[in-house]
Amino acid sequence: MTSTSAAPPREGETLSLQCDDLDDEGAALASHGGARVNVAAALPGERVQATVTHVSSHRPEAWARLDVIDAPSPERRAPACAAYGSCGGCVLQHLDVAAQLAWKATRVR
């Protein structure tokens, strides 16, 4: 996770983030000001602009809404499901199938 600032994230703040991994729920992970930032719909390897929607009160962690993808991942794909992004059922449809399988295998191990 790459830090882009010394100040911890604040709710409502728009951040420029470099995403480096996925969390257990399939959200991209980045680091900002020493805090882990979870960005749903972003992918590892992407540089994004995201708005902080929640900051944990008891650990250095925040959640952010993806606003803009400045540099997309080469593994990004168009989701096959028309309901992607609205139902919450298939959070990784925007990730290439081979990359999805690799991520799932890593989690199982």
Give a brief rundown of this model:
Helices cover 11% and strands 35% of the residues. The longest helix has 12 residues.
Query: End-to-end distance, in Å?
Result: 21 Å
Main structural class: mainly beta
Can you tell me the residue ranges where pLDDT is under 50 for at least 5 consecutive residues?
Answer: none
Helix content: 10-25%
Largest sheet: 6 strands, mixed
Number of strands: 6
Radius of gyration: 14 Å
Query: Proportion of β residues?
Result: 25-35%
Q: Keywords for this structure?
A:
6 strands; globular
Folded structure, characterized:
The chain is built from 1 helix and 6 strands; from the N terminus they run E-E-E-E-E-E-H. With 109 residues, it is mostly beta strands. A 6-stranded mixed beta sheet has the order 1-5-6-4-3-2, with no helix packed on it. The model has no long low-confidence stretch (mean pLDDT 91).
